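REVIEWER CHECKLIST
Item 1: Sequence provided? yes
Item 2: Single chain? yes
Item 3: Sequence as submitted:
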Amino acid sequence: MSETRPAKFPWWAYWLFLAVIALFAFAPVLSVLAATFIADSNGCYVNEGGVNPCMIGGADWGPTLYTLFVLGWFMLATIPLGGAAFFVWLASLIIHRIAWGQMQKGKRS
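Item 4: Structure as written out by the authors:
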């Protein structure tokens, strides 16, 4: 009895795409968190109102931290786009899984 083993559903690809969608959607939030953490760890103050000096290792990182912090405003675009991409991802997963299951049934008959 040489029955062929059914192919596995490519879950890894779907999890990879979900990770990319989540990273895209939350990258601005991570940027704000990183800027805040770095500033707080070095006794600095950061806000979107203007650049504040922040000396780290003898160099002024204030403008860089300000840029990282202000990039958080991109979340107004990336989170809704990520949500829409999630629903497209979910619909693709459901359709593919149903089609794959029907194909596997057809091979066994």
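Item 5: Key structural point noted by reviewer: The first helix runs from residue 11 to 41.
Item 6: Recommendation: ____
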